[in-house]
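tmp note - Cob(I)yrinic acid a,c-diamide adenosyltransferase
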Amino acid sequence: MKKGLIQVYTGNGKGKTTAAIGQAIRAMGRGWRIMVVFWLKGERTSGEMEILKKLGAKVIFWGEEYGKKLITGKPVGNKDNIKKEAKDFLNKIKGIIEKERYDLLIMDEINVALHYGFIEEKEILDFLKEKPSSLELILTGRKALQSIICMADLVTEVKKIKHPYNSKIKARGGIEY
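out:
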């Protein structure tokens, strides 16, 4: 039985999700079963979500409305209710991975959800400690907590040097989504 590692892709640069999805495609090419959880993103059509579904990955979403509010600077709502929703969702993920036996779990933007306090640090640390030993786990998003960095086997910081958004170039299908 293989030992599943914990990987973290963090930093302010573009490419964290792309790196994680690249890992998923590589793993599927080797016959791995993949589950991708998009935190703070919705089911809008994007290239990576479409290809993952076509290749047979399980893809689920949580908190699109909160992600949109964070981007626009609007209040997200009652933090206690959001924390309960997030905790319930994390428990749902635990149940799925116990029952369906995935080889790779990607938790996209989980670091952002942690940073904004939607999920308690202890809940994620417990999740990492209790994950099936063979499950490879990738956590993405800016502002990874030091405690998660310490638990991880691989940490990559993606650093922005220059980005087209700063030149008022809008996101492009096939490149940014």
